[in-house]
Amino acid sequence: MTPGMIAGMAISKITVSVPEGLVEYIKTQVAAGEYESVSAFVTRAAERLRDFDPLDLLIASMIAENGEPDGEAQRWVEQALQVARRAADSSAA
Hints:
This protein is mainly α. The protein has one domain. The termini are close together.
């Protein structure tokens, strides 16, 4: 089953065009066993974008209200995002 998919979930086929360098990267990830297939890679990428869109809106509103974060806050955010990405990657495996 594709990571991030639910058993019995309806699947639709689409065709996408991507730059050649990106195709090679995706195929390398699949060959390394990081993803079951190209479809699994694209599904996971789309899920991540979908899941982070609300967070982007929240961050934009916080910056509008409070101004840009300082260097210390930026470092904290980078560390928190790394932890979140590792958690998401391990739960998808």
